[in-house]
Amino acid sequence: MGKKKIHGGKSTKGNNNMLKQKIVKTMWILFGLAVASILMLFVLISVGAIGYLPEISQLENPIDKYASQVISSDKELLFTYSQSDNNRIFVDYSDLSPHLIDALIATEDIRYYSHSGIDFISVGRAVVKTLLLNRESSGGGSTITQQLAKLLYSPPANNKLQRVFQKPVEWVIAAKLERFYTKDEIINLYLNKYDFNYNAVGIESAARTYFNKTPKELNIEEAAMLIGMLKNSSLYNPVRRPEVTRNRRNVVLTQMEK
């Protein structure tokens, strides 16, 4: 008797290959649609169709409220007075301690001088840790410029979803800020804007409030403490939580050593 030929194996293998090709093709289509949607989102944000985008005049003069200063005849600052939450004394970049700059970049944005407002490496790391590894602390993906955009133009978010929708707007604003200002000017704007609690708005007021010094006089430990407060000035509060604040300062010092 002759042997029967079995063709089922080849047919099954061919079907499997076709199924794999369809799956790969579908995944590429979905990926293309996702990329196109993201690009369209940023285009709509950049033209002001979605979210709030500040006017050019606001970008050129983002901080317009400073405290009035009373200075003695020998040029000593006696006191300041201001409206609520605006006890801010402007300080120029040249009057900042180098320790402040080093601590800020080492802790908040290690690739600050090599990106144009968005650090895609940090964003990718944050996405992987948050979505894939389900970690609440993802190490952060915001650059100094993005943090400045948030301080200047994003109202406090009521929930995580609202915060997610604020991010793309801040990316667009950050890119625009990078076109209007130098890197040194962005750092200066950021440190002049941040609220360090106890009506110490801006680095000049913070240095005087916590150490009775000017920003230029701060030593490395003092600079590290103030920069550590940028993560959350209510949590890392040297008056109410000195030990927690000290630990955060040590983290900043460790980052500076790397």
Automatic annotation (TrEMBL):
State the Gene Ontology terms under molecular function.
peptidoglycan glycosyltransferase activity; serine-type D-Ala-D-Ala carboxypeptidase activity
Protein transport among keywords: no
TM segment ranges: 28-53
The answer, when asked if Transmembrane helix is one of the entry's keywords, is yes
Record localization: Cell membrane
Which controlled-vocabulary keywords does the entry list? Cell membrane, Cell shape, Cell wall biogenesis/degradation, Glycosyltransferase, Membrane, Peptidoglycan synthesis, Transferase, Transmembrane, Transmembrane helix
Q: In which pathway does it act?
A: Cell wall biogenesis; peptidoglycan biosynthesis
Reactions the enzyme catalyzes: [GlcNAc-(1->4)-Mur2Ac(oyl-L-Ala-gamma-D-Glu-L-Lys-D-Ala-D-Ala)](n)-di-trans,octa-cis-undecaprenyl diphosphate + beta-D-GlcNAc-(1->4)-Mur2Ac(oyl-L-Ala-gamma-D-Glu-L-Lys-D-Ala-D-Ala)-di-trans,octa-cis-undecaprenyl diphosphate = [GlcNAc-(1->4)-Mur2Ac(oyl-L-Ala-gamma-D-Glu-L-Lys-D-Ala-D-Ala)](n+1)-di-trans,octa-cis-undecaprenyl diphosphate + di-trans,octa-cis-undecaprenyl diphosphate + H(+); Preferential cleavage: (Ac)2-L-Lys-D-Ala-|-D-Ala. Also transpeptidation of peptidyl-alanyl moieties that are N-acyl substituents of D-alanine
> Which one GO biological process term can you cite for this protein?
cell wall organization
Q: What is its main location?
A: membrane
Alphabetical GO CC annotations of the entry are: outer membrane-bounded periplasmic space; plasma membrane
Residue ranges of domain Glycosyl transferase family in the record: 78-257
Taxonomically, the superkingdom here is Bacteria
| Record protein name field | Glycosyl transferase family 51 domain-containing protein
Q: Which organism is it from?
A: Proteiniphilum acetatigenes
